[in-house]
Amino acid sequence: MKRFLAQAGNIAYLVKPYWKYGKAYSIISFFVAAIISPLDSIAGVLFTQSVIDAVAAGATFGGVIAIIVRFLLVLLFTLIIRNAYDVLYSGYKLPDIQQKINLEIYHKVLKTDYKYFDNPEFFDDYTWAINEYAAKSAEAYNLIMRMLQSISTIISMVSIIVILGPGLIAITIIEMAVTIFFETRRNKLNIKKQEEILPLDRRLGYTNRVFYQKEYAADIKVTNVRRYLLALYDESGKKKLETIKKYSTKLLAWLYAQNFIAIAYNAAIMAYISYGMIVSKRIVGVGKFMGLITANSQLVTSLYGFFGFVSQANNLNLYAAKIKVFFDVESKIENQTNGIADIPAEPFEVRIENLSYAYENSNFGLHNINLLVKPGDKIAIVGENGAGKTTLVKLLLHLYQPETGNIFYNSHPIEDYNVAELRSKIGTAFQAANVYALSLAENLRIYKDMTKENLDEIVNKLELTKVLSKSKGSLDTELTREFNQNGIILSAGETQKISIGRIMSREFGLLILDEPSSTLDPLTEYNLTSLLYNEANKTTTILIAHRLSMVREADCIYVMNNGTICESGCHDELMEKKGLYYEMFVKQSEKYSK
Predict the structure, then answer these.
(1) Inter-CA distances, 577 with 254, 369, 569, 574, 581, Å
(2) Bridge partner residues of 401 (DSSP)
(3) What is d(CA 230, CA 352) in angstroms, rounded to the nearest whole number?
(4) What digits encode the pLDDT tens for the residues 332-371?
(5) 521, 547 in Cβ contact below 8 A?
């Protein structure tokens, strides 16, 4: 009983959006399932019986036609309502509800703390939610409507059978009890099979995604990664087939038993009706005979349908549990909407005190970070790959919450701010820059709307005119070819230029530049560095860099190693110390001088 209630709760969870976004639709659906569909079934049963009895009783042709017309009017009435509901209402309202469900997921993603996306289990649940929530909500909603229709039809058919042949009810109840027993056993086996197959399906799905997504195409063609991916697919596929085979024999045995009962039941029904007509004389007339056969057929179909829904409900229950995990996640950072929102449009002071942060299930983290950036200063943070530079950036953007210590902006702890307002005052350019299937102008305006004159100025400064020229495009041309075969395809360096162009759209209190020119050639990088420093003069700037040629002009350089700051000072001071910065700078100089 406890399990049944839990499943019912999960199904209700999936159906909830339909009531939330379509109350009128739900009420009309209830009316169609509970009233119109059973009326259609009742008319079908009584129509056959009435016509046959009228003919057998010697009614005139006109009298039979009158009976036919009456029932046709009833059937036409139900047909008009059902078709109007399916085409005019359901055909429009269902897509509308599903779009709202997807928007609900997107808003949840925006309100979910970034740390959860580092968790593979959560990411699996998120993937399930975004791919399945709308579809499974529709499936659960349709399941309930069909169950309601089946219940209404069952009640209607039982009412007819009780009048014409009550003994059929007892036979049907016995058959259903045995069928439910067999169906329950089969469902339990199917659930176990499904639970074992799900992780294998995720592996198969991953391989499928890699083979059709463009960013993996070059690697797949020119390296041996395809060998490992095909091996993963083959191994997972074989395990899935082995799992299916393991359960097939048991499932087949229960199915054979269930079908044998169905055959025996049909024989018992025919024997009962024949006895009633030939021996006991309780069933009189061919019409009643046909009415009983039709009513009982409708009853059995509805009963089988009703109990067959149990298997579908079990499957939906698995999906609902995953989706609930995604929506039930508690986020502290992204829900911080009541903090300081009135942030002055002036350069930030940034102070980090005794900051530490560690990733879950990892030995890496930041330890006791301290630094001060005065308003208008340009500082640089350097270090080898994996030193913790990008992690520090994510903490500065309040994507992560420090474990100990804190970050202060203008003397206020970072958690005191409205997180959305704070980030709106911070301009960022990441190493792994993204462009979107929007126009070039829209890609440049993601921080702030700009006039065409401002856009043209940015395009000229970043030398993006070359990109437009070779692509025969304009500011209104779409980037990527996701939707448009004439879209502009950008190189990694050109994509980074777009990322930098975005922060030139407005003045920020703080600029965070995380290796913004890592894919550019040295000459382009030099020109872009000069441009960045000119832009940075307007505000406080934190530059994360791997190439040390970019940081020589910084007011202060912080050197990170294994999650700590091991050195700090201007370029000349650090070179005099001949520590890690000196070693890194000399090695890079030697590489570029060869």
Answers:
(1) 79, 20, 10, 5, 9
(2) none
(3) 48
(4) 888 877 888 888 878 999 999 999 998 877 788 899 999 9
(5) no
Contact 387, 561 (CB under 8 A): yes
Q: What is the mean pLDDT of the chain?
A: 81
CB atoms within 10 A of CB 281: 9
Provide, rounded to the nearest whole percent, the portion of the chain with pLDDT above 70. Answer: 88
**What burial class does residue 470 get, using C-beta atoms within 10 Å of its C-beta: 0-12 exposed, 13-18 middle, 19+ buried?**
exposed
How far lies 407's CA from each of 115, 373, 391, in Å? 18, 11, 13
**Crossing angle between the packed helical segments 37-56 and 61-84, to the nearest 10 degrees:** 170
Structure confidence at residue 357 (pLDDT): 93
Q: Where are the beta strands (DSSP E) in 224-348?
A: none
- Exposure b/e, 362-395, CB count within 10 A at least 16 = b: eeeebbebebebeebbbbbbbbeeebbbbbbbbb
| Cβ pair 348, 375 in contact under 8 A | yes
Question: How many Å apart are CA 489 and CA 158, to the nearest integer?
Answer: 66
pTM as predicted: 0.70
Quick: pLDDT tens for 279-318. 666 665 566 666 666 777 777 777 766 666 666 777 777 7
